[in-house]
Amino acid sequence: MSSEITETRSRILESTVRILEEHGGKGVRMGDIAKESGISRQAVYLHFASRTDLLVAATRYLDEILDVDKRLAPSRAASSGIERLALYIDCWGNYIPEIYGVGKALMLARDSDEAAAVAWDDRMAAMRDGCRAAIDALHADEMLAPGWTRPKATDALWAMLLVPHWEALTIECGWSTKRYVRWMKTLAEQTFVRQTNS
Amino acid sequence: MSSEITETRSRILESTVRILEEHGGKGVRMGDIAKESGISRQAVYLHFASRTDLLVAATRYLDEILDVDKRLAPSRAASSGIERLALYIDCWGNYIPEIYGVGKALMLARDSDEAAAVAWDDRMAAMRDGCRAAIDALHADEMLAPGWTRPKATDALWAMLLVPHWEALTIECGWSTKRYVRWMKTLAEQTFVRQTNS
DNA sequence: GTGTCAATTGACACGGTGTCAAGTGAGACG
DNA sequence: CGTCTCACTTGACACCGTGTCAATTGACAC
Prior knowledge:
The first copy, chain A, has 198 residues and is mainly α. Chain A is built from ten helices and no strands. Chain A folds into two domains: 7-63, Orthogonal Bundle (Arc Repressor Mutant, subunit A); 67-192, Tetracycline Repressor, domain 2, CATH 1.10.357. In chain A, helix 1 (7-22) crosses helix 6 (81-109) and helix 4 (51-66) runs antiparallel to helix 6 (81-109). Chain A is elongated, with a radius of gyration of 19 Å. Chain A starts with 6 loop residues before the first helix and ends in a 6-residue tail after the last helix. The model of chain A has no long low-confidence stretch (mean pLDDT 96). Chain A binds a DNA duplex (30 and 30 nucleotides) through residues 6, 8, 29-31, 39-43, 45-46, 49-51.
């Protein structure tokens, strides 16, 4: 049901992403999405079992469009831990604003819908893998700052990169994404990279 | 209505705080609160106009009990910016877990109820004032790290102290509050305090 | 011209909030 | 003793958003 590819299905996904983006993920109902797609509310359920199902499909759809794997390639190919960390933050920091609408909707659904919680947590776990990889690379270079174990450093890096932190700085405080990325890089570097006094 | 003090009203507030605490602020309905208070669901509305109204009253009630002002006194009386910053983080970091249940419920209501959003934002603005005061104190000592303006430093400190960051580290990653506080102090110090190489 | 299939319309169940009206029961006061 | 008041109760109901169901339409395919 939510896997076969039809023209209508794509149109629903497309309008879902658009309308969610427009409204910052808040207050978008199934009826709104249907109207935006030019079909009846019930017809949406012919393609997606539930709102959460649609939301999850929308994130997958977005990831495909944004070509996440290609974006991550530079970070994966980095020649040092420091570089890997910086490139990962670049990547993630610029990714957040593009998925924010859908992501926020999923985060909100989280609290009333177990399936939404699992879906969102999955994505955050994937982000955590990236953090772990960066910390591991730092460790391999013997550049992980003293006082950190790898798991704890991963925890700390992951937590500071979470969407609400971005939300606070950009949406609440009005920072640009550029400034956010710059700050997160500085923060991560001063925190996790061993300081050599050469 | 939601201001006069009666025995039933206090009982409602008390059970609200308790049950919210128990459930981490999630999935608590008016009926649950009523049952916990030993009255009918409708009777709750004799004391509070709405769920949000009750939630807001519950946070005020909690603040009274926790005597927030007294707790903040040490930070306010600090003799240096560095001390003020550290004591403020101590204070706030230990406060979060105590208000988490009610706070979380308010955060969740935020997205569907404008009044809840305003109430929560108010509290976060108050927290921001504390951040600003600490940064100002640092600045007055000429100990604010180079590269920061006071507003930007306030933004950054405020964002890192927000509840979701605490939530990620303690609830998701399993850190103790003690470890969280220690880490936030280190983070804030290395970030905002001018490093003297003496 | 008949079958298939996507989509439509309209009705409805469910769960949660909030409202309303009529009734109950206990204490205060004559 | 009666009666007034007031907090609270019971039960019904409106509103909203999600999700379900059944009957119908309309187009394209063979």
